[in-house]
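re: ur question from earlier - yeah i can do the single chain one, its not a big deal. heres the input i used so u can compare w yours
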Amino acid sequence: MGSIVSNNSRIARNTLMLYFRMFLMMGITFYTSRVVLQQLGVEDFGIYNVVGGVVAMLAFLNSAMTVSTQRYLTFELGTGNAEKLKLVFMTSIYCHALISLIVIVTIEIAGLWFIYNKMVIPDNRLDAALWTFQMSVASTVVVITSTPYNAAIIAHEKMSAFAYISVLEAALKLAIAFAISFGNFDKLIVYATLLFVAQLIIRFIYSAYCTRRFEETRLRRLFSKRLFREMSVFAGWNIWGTLAIVFKTQGLNLLLNLFFGPAVNAARGIAVQVQSAMALFAGNLQTAMNPQITKTYAQGALQEMHRLVFRSAKFTFFLLLILCLPVMFEIDWILEFWLGEVPAHTSNFVILMLCVTILNAIATPLRDSAAATGKVKVYQSVVSGLLLLTLPAAYLALKMGGSPESAFVTELVLFAMALLAQLVIIRPMIHISLRQFLLQVMLPCAAVSATSTIIVATMKYIMPGIPPVVNCLAFALVVAIIAYCMGLTHVERCFVNAKIKSLILKLKLRQE
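and the output i got, formated as tokens:
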């Protein structure tokens, strides 16, 4: 029982640190973008983004390796095998060194060809663009080699360090944005160079922190061909899963452009920004819970693992519902207030994409539990295959005269099918009870969703004159109360009550 309470407290504390990081970084990032745009000007700002985008195309490769490294480190932390933990870390260092080499060779060949032959860059800015490109490649390599250290911090659940270092990185970028306003020099070249220096500083801080705090991160001559192959295969299937999402996302964008033109792409682009902001909230909670899911599996504590998966799915679903439902009902006002002129279809796109995001709250813990086992071949093959079916299905819907919204309806339906497939595939992998998952997660989520939607729709109908901001707050409060009363068990309500009381007590003590 003490272990469960300790895990709950750690998850709650780590989640708060990740939210602190998210809000601060979002504020700094938005302001930094504004300052950089003012200092570089539209042309140079566009050059930096398009050239940097060439390098970012291989980001999915590093993302897949990050998942692999974090899984193996967390697993060995769960088993308590210190020697194996050292071997995993050093093997991951070699893995990321190989990825760095692949990125350098691929980008230097393909990227330079693309810049010289395809990109539209003014002749007088070509040298600056090439320098920016090389600095972007160098920065990317630094980020890749830093990944094992980032994964170690998350695996050890030291989210406060992760949060503080991330905020420092954002602050350095803000300082650079102000620094380029002084002096008479080529601001694009200086900006790209200073960003590379900032990445080096952050890379040194990550490695220094880990070396002092975690024994396994101290460099030594250790390598395992078997482990290298195993981690690479695991990462390979994750790359396939990531590629499926990339192809699905970009494929839908191309289909919309093919059938309806760039105006609809603009509407989708706005919807993606809203969806990404909402997904950040869910991601922070699930990032805090993921190491515990892997560690409990490694320890053979499957019942505790099931409980974490259930709670992660349910709590994240309710959190997103509290955030998303008010947005859905006031989306027209929100978009008009934010943008002024709103492209057609934007509101419907946002609503449909938020539905996918809410469903993904249930899917993500299942994916994490599959990763914990290390056996993701069947899982990634089936689930990624279903997601890729979105493209031909959406094409048929549009070809038959469907509206732009029909593409996103197709995506939502296939995502729901993929969720059911996940449950069937994962059941024998972690010996989870489908009946218990349906009763403890799916049913409460469905009940809270239906009840909240009916009550919020009724409030919207009978109180038409209420300011939209007040409506959003009222709707969020209503959903939160319904989720608390209908969605949580007695034990879960006691846990939430204890956390709220603890927070209030800490605030009182600080005021005194």
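The mean pLDDT is 80. not sure if urs matches, ping me
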